[in-house]
Amino acid sequence: MENTTTLLLFFSVLLCHGAMAIPEGEEHNLFFMHNPKTVVKTDAGEMHVLKTQSGCRRFLDRHMHIGFITMQPKSLFVPHYLDSNLIIFIHKGEANLGFIYDDEVVEMRLKEGDVYVIPSGSAFYFVNKEEGERLHIIYSIDPSTSLGLDTFHSFYIGGGANSHSLLSEFAPAILETACNESRMEVESVFYKELDGAIMYMDDSDVPSLGTKFLQLKKEEKEQHQKKMLHDQEEEEEKEEEQQTSSAWGKLLDTVFGKVNEKRESKNSVDWSKATNLYDKKTDFRNDYGWSKTLDAVQYPPLTNPDIGLFYVYLKAGSMLGPHVNPRATEYSIVVKGCGEVHIVYPNGSKAISTEIKEGDVFVVPKSFPLCQIASNDGALELFGFSTSAREKKPLFLAGSVSILRTMQGPQLAAALGVSVDTLRRALDPQDDLLIFPSTWSATP
């Protein structure tokens, strides 16, 4: 029923939508994200963010910001928190991510392909400990939770844009009382100038957030975590004893216990774990390329920001056929190679047909038909975010699983002004499902 409704909605929009009055030559500025804003820039690294063009937002169900973080070897992105949800993807290199989980500092090792969600208001930091290897992170910002201060706002616990902690804006007397330390000690910690939000660090340096925990040896960390787990289990056991102290309580627990366990399991989200997009099985693969997606079912932390991820690989000269995402807007980043992207307005007029190259970021609004083509010189790789964490169910307009093939019959033939036999001859020869070898890819 859902597919039928989606098809009817798509065709009604396709046939009835009014003309899109976009000035000639402005299409590229509409769908591409240009002019990155520099959020952080130091000798040790940079952070940039791209905003969706204001003219494009009228086509979008939701919008987001796309950004890039680059960190030099032996560098630290100082502890801070944001007013927005942050979804990170490790594009190149490895990083140590420190964050607070259940009132304890946890440090996680992230490798290429890892995805992690940092909720709004959660303090965190990055460390690039690698020798001679730069760290590249692609991230998306969900502005729905922001304070409305431009794109988003960072609150630095140490360092930062003004080279000092946000705590330094409080009077020394306030920090003396809050920290129970002398003024000299407080001023030596919170009032000295630092090297900005991204700084170089020695092997002996550690972030001020959770220093004691991070300095523990591996064995001590494991013992500490085991103790935390043991204490938590004891606390849960005490709560269970209190809840089942009466015979009636025990009876209810026996009858409804399994139901409650399933409900708690369904509603709980483990924010302490990352997932790896590269390790995920492909959703589709043939001789010409593959694609994969990541949704909230596969990675529950995506539920709250309601953002999904995808990755597309096209061999040289291959094409991801014309298709539609009826559920979400897609933000694509060209992470490797070059090629073309073609986007069509719902009324059937051309929105954009242009070349794309590594580093380009473009937006495809929900229900806008599109296709991507790799150049003959090499493979094209696209990574991106979508504005829905639900399972992605694209509608393909060509190929053996296309909506044209599914709906072929007298009604569609009449709508196109051809006979049923003519329609069948036009649609039946294509046996490839989603990704096709381009007819112009072969050398003459």
From TrEMBL:
This protein's UniProt keywords = Signal
What Pfam families does its record include? Cupin_1
Q: Which InterPro entries match?
A: Cupin_1 (IPR006045), RmlC-like_jellyroll (IPR014710), RmlC_Cupin_sf (IPR011051), Seed_Storage-Functional (IPR050253)
Question: Is the keyword Cell wall biogenesis/degradation assigned to this protein?
Answer: no
Q: Where is the composition biased (Acidic residues)?
A: 232-242
The keyword Signal is assigned to this record: yes
> Where does the record place the Cupin type-1 domain?
28-187, 275-424
Q: What is this protein called?
A: RmlC-like jelly roll fold
